[in-house]
């Protein structure tokens, strides 16, 4: 059993693949209006997620709309904690109006990458998540500093793997600026994801595999062909006998299906 998540609400409702993806994924990482999106987009994604039975999570970011949240930033810890908590709270208010709740958090872009190795920034994000809701599930790279810090703050650390991103030799994501960082072949991606879930490991650019604890697979909503990729991945997983389900139960919302604590990378 595995969850399939996608980053949604990152553009105007019309012209995006959000509605189609909500018919495929099991969890939706909703942009909170800081790196992308706005209140209306959040409302429409949350409403559609409820109709589709998809769990809603907050896709929090550095305040960087012009760079789509993908540029590294130096933000004081207190300021970062306040920024993340404000995003969680903002999405929660919108979600509530549509009969949904914010049941997990997934950092976006440069914030995701930074807290994988930066303990000070990771601690600021963890403090915000714990203040929003004790025990909140959070997505991140298995074995990262972020997963360790999240666990220390009483959060539920949920390891994820990326369907459409290449992995460097140290099992981190290849920077988007590098050739081959983003994958596009739906069939190859599907075979890769099925292998990930079956083996509990990811293949690095070196060809070697490293064991990871995977409870969720991410398909980026802004990758060209995202809907076709997500549809192929879901079909491939189901054909392999792997059931798709949110890592947070839709009926009880805050009860994790996977209480996965990732190993301390140190």
Write the layout of secondary structure elements.
Layout: E1 3-8, H1 18-22, E2 27-31, H2 39-52, E3 55-59, H3 77-97, E4 102-105, H4 109-115, H5 119-132, E5 137-140, H6 145-152, E6 156-162, H7 186-199, E7 201-203, E8 209-211, E9 216-219, H8 226-239
Parallel strand pairs: 1-2, 1-9, 2-3, 3-4, 5-6, 6-9
Antiparallel strand pairs: 7-8
Task: List the keywords.
266 residues; alpha/beta; TIM Barrel; 8 helices; 36% helix; 15% strand; globular; disordered C terminus
What do these coordinates show?
- This protein is an alpha/beta fold and 266 residues long.
- The chain has one domain (3-239): Glycoside hydrolase/deacetylase (TIM Barrel, Alpha-Beta Barrel), CATH 3.20.20.370.
- Helix content is 36%, strand content 15%.
- It is built from eight helices and nine strands.
- It has helices at 18-22, 39-52, 77-97, 109-115, 119-132, 145-152, 186-199, 226-239; strands at 3-8, 27-31, 55-59, 102-105, 137-140, 156-162, 201-203, 209-211, 216-219.
- The longest helix is centred in the first third of the chain and has 21 residues, at 77-97.
- The relative contact order is 0.16.
Short description:
The protein is α/β, with parallel strands linked by helices. It has helices at 18-22, 39-52, 77-97, 109-115, 119-132, 145-152, 186-199, 226-239, and strands at residues 3-8, 27-31, 55-59, 102-105, 137-140, 156-162, 201-203, 209-211, 216-219. Residues 250-266 have low confidence and may be disordered.
């Amino acid at each position: 059993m595995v969850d399939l998540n996608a980053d949604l609400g990152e553009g105007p409702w019309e012209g995006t693949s959000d509605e189609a993806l909500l018919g495929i994924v099991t969890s939706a990482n909703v942009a909170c209006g800081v790196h992308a999106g706005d209140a209306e987009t959040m409302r429409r994604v949350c409403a559609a997620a409820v109709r589709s039975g998809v769990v809603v999570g907050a896709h929090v970011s550095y305040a960087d709309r012009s760079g789509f949240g993908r540029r590294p930033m130096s933000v004081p810890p207190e300021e970062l904690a306040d920024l993340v908590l404000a995003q969680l709270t903002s999405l929660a208010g919108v979600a509530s109006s549509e009969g949904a709740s914010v049941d997990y958090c997934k950092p976006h872009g440069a914030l995701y990458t930074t807290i994988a190795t930066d303990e000070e920034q990771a601690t600021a994000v963890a403090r915000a998540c714990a203040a929003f809701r004790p025990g909140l599930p959070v997505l991140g790279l298995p074995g990262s500093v972020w997963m360790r810090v999240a666990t220390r703050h009483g959060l539920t650390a949920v390891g994820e793997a990326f369907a459409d991103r290449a992995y460097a030799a140290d099992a981190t994501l290849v920077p988007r600026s590098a050739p081959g960082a983003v994958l596009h072949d739906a069939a190859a991606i599907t075979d890769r994801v099925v292998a990930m879930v079956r083996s509990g490991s990811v293949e690095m650019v070196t060809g070697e595999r490293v064991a990871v604890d995977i409870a969720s697979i991410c398909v980026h909503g802004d990758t060209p062909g995202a809907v076709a990729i997500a549809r192929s991945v879901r079909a491939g997983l189901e054909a392999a006998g792997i059931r798709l389900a949110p890592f947070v139960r839709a009926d009880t919302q805050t009860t994790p299906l996977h209480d996965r604590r990732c190993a301390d990378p140190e």
